[in-house]
């Protein structure tokens, strides 16, 4: 446990923390330049995110999918794979859950697990296509994931349109109530917010993420492949099948995330004109979370609070919502450029050392 | 090992710098804070500040009367979408100046935002909250059910709730008229239609348009192309290129910002000497894209609908339920000026319009 | 007379938290001499040269170049002062030509265009003067390692260097290339260039250096003219105790045949035939050394043996069982241990801790893994044992392998492979880049394995190592074994003749 804690608070946690601070501060500078009051703006942002039970519940609702996609991206990162495709895996998971939810009749204790399992399988298989193409054909995963995202988007729309469509609407029929992950009681507690049990699944998967990665043979293998595929091959690890397995698990995380949106938030699957964006945000979450389980959860909380609170900022301080995307972008920039910041500082120190 | 040690050291420096910066900025911010608002919690402050400025500007017209607070939530297109969101916001602004009301909007970043954004206004006591667009139907329904005392309104979708006014348009009627224009003016007898998503609203455009073309030119062929998105000009451009290549000389689009790409492709071909036209949608798009390429537009007066329903609220005539705006109600139609359409064609358009209003022609909606 | 010293470093100290890398170091290098800097890995000689090249700033001390006190703030400043460094790992852009590499960053320009003509003339001048012959129009990929090194030297000369630092320059070269490099260095010195040679190879120092400064644990032990000393004396000064050069070993007791290779063929990465019907036997209780010029199929042979490369035909039998084209894991489970050539690339996961690296081959088997779960207490217990047994210098078993010195990293690999109790131990370049102490240790371990009745297959580019350790020597040329020699009855000349059945340059042309 101490090792775990140590890993948490090692220097690698400092980079995101500092980057977040820099991002928020620079965001404040931009607000000042636009004659907005940054304190009022951030105050309204946090007031919106945590101000009352309704908004608090909605904030958690917003955070939940980011945990799933963050885990998906982080898991693939651990094997050295850049999974841009969490978006597509998310969509495939969502549509699988919608199919099971709409077309199947079952008591809830079967229906919910079945829908989740279907989404896990759909997301996982969608991910493993990427792993397979990488292993068997050497196609770079960035290319395949981006292409599969589009295929997923349109395939899901096709499925909804042909098999699940509610007449006259751009969405599927409502899923059976037995497949809901939300409950009136829970919503009531949060003043009708659409918080749902998916957040518990997300946290459970975070624990699983940590456990698989650090405690199991599989985790050892995929971390080894991530750090050094040559040495892993030498050690007898089947690198190619590790790619496929990793992408399956990665896609599984994203797929269950998609299911939770359908089963918890909307209770239907819309025909998406564009990507919902959870998968792409997952990259940011994983980056901020440094690919650790706890980091991903915290990163998701950050991104979730910022994006959900953004409208509060507009409402309370008149600051355009878009500005929060600038702040998020700055945070990501500084996390990604952690090494660059470090270099700058070192250079600065060196120069100072030689001036007489 | 040496590297990690270095790293740790430089981090100390970064943290120090950040703390320094924080204090500097905190200093600036504090004075600012004191000047503007005296120590109240931020949220109420914000609301109040807003209210103050609004009342200030409307003091002359406001008087003793209740100031109405009418607001809207956009769908993911955002308030500057060159389409119905923008049109609705223009309507609200017109309403603001005519009635001295307080207006505001929130933009939705994703479809999960619809409900909290509506709630944000409803819970802050908006007198009327608009949901703009077909896609917000479920969200408006949910918020209306949970807040039976609030009043809501929606454009392009029918929401069955006792406190919601639904406004839809007979797009097929207006589209029929631009179909007449296209059918009479095509030289190739091939006419294109570019749709956004394949949803009932857009289907009405397509159905009316096709019927209009066939009514005046049975030989003409309407080629249908749905891009699947309202926010993808690149796809619109590609779709237009395909249609023009297939021999179409007029394209009617009902695709929001995707249609911008249709216009751009048309402008490029026109410059290269091509004899092509585009028929705009929702607003008079010749204002944006010019008369060189815009043949005419199928106007859908979302702005007028917003003004009208909002005014009903002020005048105590707010009616929950469905309002359908067609040619008869001036909810759809061609712009006043159509310099590119010959007089005789416009005359025929007028004749068809009268037949539709009188009920002699019933335009199919799907 | 102007100052006779090209480089003077006085009282240089450099401390990293917890380590004193350089402690009051004095170094004087005369103009036009070849000055060797001798020390074990981690002794501080590279840190010192990095200070001279502007990569680090000293905490204390001063540097004089040609008598002038200078502050060397960064490598650019060093280059301006006429200092050039030839790194152990070349800094070349592979798809670029030799010419483009040499002028990279210092291109002669005519307007916005690069004037290749001017550059070519200048390079021609330099290569004639110092005997550095290269074809400026071939790409780096196409030329041999020795040639690449010449490009590096030309690069520094092109930038006007007159003080050249060579960091372990012979580590990657064949015996012939080493000879050629020595001649070049001599010529450079004769033409007035000052050369600092970082090395731990005593033989090279004795052959070429004028003076030698010995560094141990960050301090200068001695500085003396090479003609006044012997290799044994230098070794003792470097290590701090007497070192024996003669490897003591008992007579080999060869037993049953462990490995049989029969008519093996395989292709290299470019699809050329690398192995052309190779046959070989290794028996228990013997060390079979493979000698050969780099690029004659040795690497491919080892990779096929360990399952990392597919054989196109032929058979490999371990104790009579055919294992060719089985997976690396199956082969390892057939009791084959393998010390890879590139320990950082193949042998270790540098970001894993020492404990995790020590089970890289058997993490999946009990007691380290049960029902899919790793048992870290067992893994770390196992690690602690091996760290003690093999004297691996590491703070603890949870330290990342990256933080260890090269010698200790190699010890981790050897410990891991030997701990698996293999019947056949394949060692490729096991002492490459290591210091004397570590080399001695590795050699002892290999002989120990032989004496325990294991079969050892040794592949090294160091002929001395092959001659000293092997019980039989197989010479490899163009993918075949061209001769099996008895090390007691042969010499470097005979082996060299067999090795050089063809010339490297020609081979590449046909490839």
- Number of extended strands of chain A: 0
What string gives the helices and strands of chain A in order?
HHHHHHHHHHHHHHHH
Would you identify the CATH H-level superfamily of the largest domain in chain C? P-loop containing nucleotide triphosphate hydrolases
CATH class of the largest domain in chain C: Alpha Beta
Distance between the termini of chain C: 55 Å
CA-based shape of chain C: globular
Beta-strand content of chain A: under 5%
Helix content of chain C: 25-40%
Mean pLDDT of chain C: 87
Low-confidence stretches of chain C: 502-511
Largest interface: A-B, 59 and 59 residues
Number of helices of chain A: 16
Outline of chain A, from the CA principal axes?
A: globular
Kindly report the CATH topology of the largest domain in chain C. Rossmann fold
Describe the structure.
Chain A: Its main location: membrane. Chain A: Pfam families: BPD_transp_2. Chain A: The chain crosses the membrane at residues 12-36, 63-83, 90-110, 116-135, 142-160, 195-213, 247-267, 273-289, 296-317, 323-345. Chain A: It is a multi-pass membrane protein. Chain A: This is ABC transporter permease protein yufP. The complex is a heterotrimer of chains A (356), B (366) and C (511). Chain A is mainly alpha-helical. Chain A has a single domain, classed as ABC transporter involved in vitamin B12 uptake, BtuC, CATH 1.10.3470. Helices cover 78% and strands 0% of the residues of chain A. Chain A is globular, with a radius of gyration of 21 Å. The model of chain B is unreliable at 1-63 (pLDDT under 50). Chain B folds into two domains: 66-169 and 301-332, Response regulator (Rossmann fold); 171-299 and 336-358, Rossmann fold. Chain B is built from 13 helices and twelve strands. Chain B starts with a helix and ends in an 8-residue tail after the last helix. Chain B is globular and about 55 Å long. In chain B, strand 8 (250-254), helix 10 (258-271) and strand 9 form a beta-alpha-beta unit. With 366 residues, chain B is α/β, with parallel strands linked by helices. Chain C has 511 residues and is of the alpha/beta class. Chain C has three domains: 5-239, 3-Layer(aba) Sandwich (Rossmann fold), CATH 3.40.50; 244-335 and 422-511, P-loop containing nucleotide triphosphate hydrolases (Rossmann fold); 348-420, no CATH class. Helices cover 33% and strands 26% of the residues of chain C. Chain C contains 18 helices and 24 strands. In chain C, the strands form six sheets. Chain C has a six-stranded mixed beta sheet, with helices on both faces. A six-stranded mixed beta sheet of chain C has the order 18-21-22-15-23-24. In chain C, strand 19 (369-370) and strand 20 form a beta hairpin. Classes of the chains: A mainly alpha (356), B alpha/beta (366), C alpha/beta (511). Chains in contact: A-B, A-C, B-C. Chains A and C meet through helix 10, helix 11 and helix 16 of A and helix 10, helix 11 and strand 20 of C.
């Amino acid at each position: 446990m101490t090792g775990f804690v140590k890993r948490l608070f090692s220097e690698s946690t400092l980079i995101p923390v500092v980057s977040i601070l820099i991002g928020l501060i620079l965001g404040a500078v931009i607000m000042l330049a636009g004659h907005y009051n940054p304190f009022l703006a951030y105050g309204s942002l946090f007031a919106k995110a945590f101000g009352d039970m309704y908004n608090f519940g909605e904030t958690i609702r917003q955070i939940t999918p980011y945990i799933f996609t963050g885990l998906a991206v982080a898991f693939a990162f651990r094997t050295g794979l850049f999974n841009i495709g969490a978006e597509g895996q998310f969509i495939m998971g969502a549509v699988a859950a919608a199919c099971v939810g709409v077309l199947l009749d079952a008591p809830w204790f079967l229906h919910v697990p079945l829908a989740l399992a279907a989404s896990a399988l759909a997301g996982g298989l969608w991910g493993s296509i990427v792993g397979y193409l990488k292993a068997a054909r050497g196609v770079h995963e960035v290319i395949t994931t981006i292409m599969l995202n589009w295929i997923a988007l349109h395939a899901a729309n096709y499925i909804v349109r042909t098999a699940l469509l509610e007449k006259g609407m751009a969405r599927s029929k409502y899923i059976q109530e037995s497949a809901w992950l939300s409950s009136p009681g829970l919503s009531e507690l949060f003043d009708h917010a659409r918080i749902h049990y998916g957040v518990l699944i997300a946290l459970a998967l975070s624990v699983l993420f940590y456990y698989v990665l650090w405690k199991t043979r599989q985790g050892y293998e995929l971390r080894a492949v991530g750090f050094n595929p040559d040495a892993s091959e030498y050690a007898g690890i089947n690198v190619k099948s590790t790619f496929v397995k990793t992408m399956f698990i990665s896609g599984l995380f994203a797929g269950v995330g998609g299911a939770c949106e359908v089963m918890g938030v909307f209770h239907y699957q819309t025909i998406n004109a564009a990507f919902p964006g959870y998968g792409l945000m997952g990259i940011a979450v994983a980056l901020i979370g440094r690919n650790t389980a706890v980091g991903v959860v915290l990163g998701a909380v950050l991104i979730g609070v910022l994006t959900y609170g953004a409208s509060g900022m507009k409402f309370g301080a008149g600051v355009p919502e878009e500005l929060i995307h600038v702040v998020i972008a700055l945070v990501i920039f500084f996390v990604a450029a952690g090494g660059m910041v470090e270099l700058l500082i070192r250079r600065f120190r060196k120069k100072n050392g030689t001036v007489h | 090992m040496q590297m990690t040690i270095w790293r740790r050291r430089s981090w100390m420096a970064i943290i120090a710098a950040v703390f320094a910066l924080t204090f500097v900025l905190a200093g600036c911010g504090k004075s600012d804070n004191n000047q503007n608002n005296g120590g109240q919690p931020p949220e109420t402050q914000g609301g109040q500040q807003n209210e103050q400025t609004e009342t200030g500007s409307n003091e002359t017209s406001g008087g003793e009367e209740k100031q109405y607070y009418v607001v809207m939530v956009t769908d993911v297109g955002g308030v500057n979408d060159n389409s119905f969101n923008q049109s609705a916001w223009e309507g609200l602004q017109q309403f603001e100046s005519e009635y001295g009301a307080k207006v505001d909007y929130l933009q939705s970043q994703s479809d999960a935002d619809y409900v909290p954004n509506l709630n944000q206004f409803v819970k802050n006591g908006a007198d009327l909250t608009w949901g703009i667009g077909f896609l917000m139907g479920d969200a408006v329904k949910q918020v209306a059910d949970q807040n039976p005392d609030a009043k809501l309104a929606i454009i392009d979708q029918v929401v069955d709730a006792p406190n919601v006014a639904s406004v839809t348009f007979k797009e097929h009627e207006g589209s029929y008229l631009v179909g007449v224009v296209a059918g009479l003016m095509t030289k190739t007898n091939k006419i294109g239609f570019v749709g956004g998503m394949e949803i009932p609203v857009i289907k009405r455009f397509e159905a009316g348009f096709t019927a209009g073309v066939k009514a005046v030119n049975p030989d003409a062929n309407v080629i249908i192309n749905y891009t699947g998105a309202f926010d993808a000009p690149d796809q619109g451009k590609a779709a237009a290129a395909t249609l023009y290549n297939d021999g179409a000389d007029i394209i009617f689009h009902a695709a929001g910002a995707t249609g911008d790409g249709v216009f751009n492709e048309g402008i490029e071909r026109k410059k290269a000497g091509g004899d092509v036209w585009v028929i705009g949608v929702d607003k008079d798009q010749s204002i944006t894209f010019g008369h060189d390429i815009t043949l005419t537009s199928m106007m859908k007066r979302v702005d007028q609908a917003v003004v009208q329903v909002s005014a009903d609220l002020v005048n105590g005539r707010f009616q929950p339920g469905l309002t359908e705006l067609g040619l008869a109600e001036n909810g759809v139609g061609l712009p006043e000026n159509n310099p590119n359409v010959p007089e005789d064609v416009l005359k025929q358009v007028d004749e068809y319009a009268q037949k539709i209003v009188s009920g002699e022609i019933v335009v199919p909606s799907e | 007379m102007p100052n006779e010293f090209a480089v003077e470093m006085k009282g240089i100290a450099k401390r990293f938290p917890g380590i004193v890398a350089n402690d009051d170091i004095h170094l004087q290098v005369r103009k036009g001499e070849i000055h060797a800097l001798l020390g074990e890995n981690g002794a501080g000689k590279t840190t010192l040269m990095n200070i001279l090249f502007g990569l680090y700033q000293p905490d204390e001390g001063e540097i004089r170049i040609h008598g002038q006190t200078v502050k060397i703030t960064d490598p650019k400043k060093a280059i301006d002062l006429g200092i050039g460094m030839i790194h152990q790992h070349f800094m070349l852009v592979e798809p670029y030509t030799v010419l483009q590499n040499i002028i990279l960053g210092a291109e002669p320009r005519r307007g916005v265009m690069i004037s290749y003509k001017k550059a070519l003339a200048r390079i021609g001048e330099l290569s004639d003067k110092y005997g550095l012959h290269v074809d400026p129009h071939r790409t780096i990929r196409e030329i041999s390692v020795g040639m690449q090194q010449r490009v590096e030297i030309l690069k520094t000369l092109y930038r006007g260097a007159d003080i050249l630092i060579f960091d372990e320059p012979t580590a990657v070269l064949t015996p012939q290339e080493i000879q050629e490099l020595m001649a070049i260095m001599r010529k450079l010195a004769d033409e007035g260039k000052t050369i600092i040679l970082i090395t731990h190879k005593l033989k090279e120092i004795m052959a070429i250096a004028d003076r030698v400064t010995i560094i141990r644990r960050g301090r200068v032990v001695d500085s003396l003219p090479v003609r006044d000393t012997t290799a044994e004396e230098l070794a003792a000064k470097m290590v701090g105790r007497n070192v024996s050069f003669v490897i003591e070993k008992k007579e080999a007791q060869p037993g049953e045949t462990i490995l049989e290779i029969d008519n093996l063929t395989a292709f290299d990465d470019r699809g050329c035939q690398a192995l052309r019907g190779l046959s070989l036997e290794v028996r228990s209780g013997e060390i079979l050394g493979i000698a050969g010029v780099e690029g004659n199929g040795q690497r491919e042979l080892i990779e096929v043996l360990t399952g990392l490369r597919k054989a196109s035909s032929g058979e490999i039998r371990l104790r009579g069982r055919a294992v060719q084209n089985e997976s690396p894991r199956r082969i390892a489970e057939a009791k084959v241990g393998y010390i890879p050539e590139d320990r950082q690339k193949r042998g270790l996961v540098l970001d894993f801790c020492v404990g995790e690296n020590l089970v890289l081959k058997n993490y999946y088997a009990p007691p380290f893994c049960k029902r899919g779960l790793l048992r870290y207490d067992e893994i770390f217990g196992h690690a602690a044992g091996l760290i003690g047994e093999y004297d691996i210098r590491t703070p603890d078993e949870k330290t990342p392998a990256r933080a260890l010195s090269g010698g200790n990293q190699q010890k981790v690999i050897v410990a891991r492979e030997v701990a698996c109790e293999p019947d056949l131990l394949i060692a490729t370049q096991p002492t490459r880049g290591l210091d004397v102490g570590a080399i001695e240790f590795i050699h002892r371990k290999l002989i120990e394995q032989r004496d325990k009745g294991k079969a050892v297959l040794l592949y090294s580019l160091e002929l001395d190592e092959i001659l000293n350790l092997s019980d039989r020597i197989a010479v490899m040329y163009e993918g075949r074994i061209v001769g099996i020699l008895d090390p007691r009855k042969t010499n470097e000349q005979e082996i060299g003749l067999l090795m050089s059945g063809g010339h490297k340059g020609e081979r590449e042309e046909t490839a």
